[in-house]
């Protein structure tokens, strides 16, 4: 069943199209690529620090590296730096683990006036909950597929 638009609705749709900014796909893609690369470069630098100065294996250095990236992302979100970077970087700042930490920290900051439990706690996990659930479910199925292919 198609909905017919009246003349006013058509004019309004045309007005909206004329006011939308142009989309710069190539420029945004390049920015996202380099921003994500910079985040990964910082992470690699942190990991190399753990490997060379603390004599950890690369595998062992992974967890503290991720923890530091999450901490830095939350810290920079709290002082307002990460949001400025994210406006410039686009998806390049949202895809790595730092983007997830930014989303959680932003939700916590936005609702801090409502209290620790009903504000920060509940609203922070409105963002994190679905990501955690889908991550756990995806990990289960990947593990199941790996188990089937390695044992049968």
The sequence of SSEs as H and E is HHHHHHH
The domain tally reads 1
Instruction: Label the overall shape.
Output: extended
Task: Please give the number of β-strands.
Answer: 0
Instruction: Note the gap between the termini.
Output: 51 Å
Give a written overview of the molecule.
- With 152 residues, the protein is mainly α.
- It has one domain (26-151).
- Helices cover 83% and strands 0% of the residues.
- It has seven helices and no strands.
- It has helices at residues 7-19, 25-53, 58-78, 81-89, 91-94, 97-110, 116-151.
- The termini are far apart.
- The model has no long low-confidence stretch (mean pLDDT 88).
Which key phrases capture this entry?
about 85% helix; extended; about 150 residues; mainly alpha
Outline of the structure:
By secondary structure, the protein is an all-alpha fold. 83% of the residues lie in helices and 0% in strands.
Q: What's the helix and strand layout?
A:
Elements: H1 7-19, H2 25-53, H3 58-78, H4 81-89, H5 91-94, H6 97-110, H7 116-151
Helix pairs in contact: 2-3, 3-6, 6-7
């Amino acid at each position: 069943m198609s909905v017919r638009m009246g003349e006013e609705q058509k004019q309004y749709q045309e007005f909206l199209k004329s006011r939308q900014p142009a989309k710069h796909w190539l420029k945004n893609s390049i920015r996202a690529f380099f921003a994500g690369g910079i985040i990964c470069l910082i992470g690699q630098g942190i990991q190399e620090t753990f490997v060379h100065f603390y004599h950890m294996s690369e595998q062992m250095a992974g967890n503290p590296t991720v923890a530091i990236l999450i901490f830095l992302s939350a810290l920079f979100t709290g002082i307002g730096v990460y949001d400025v970077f994210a406006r410039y970087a686009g998806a390049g700042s949202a895809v790595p683990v730092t983007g997830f930490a930014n989303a959680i920290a932003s939700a916590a900051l936005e609702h801090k006036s409502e209290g620790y439990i009903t504000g920060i706690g509940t609203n922070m996990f409105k963002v994190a909950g679905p990501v955690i659930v889908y991550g756990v479910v995806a990990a289960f199925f990947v593990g199941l597929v790996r188990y089937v292919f390695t044992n049968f």
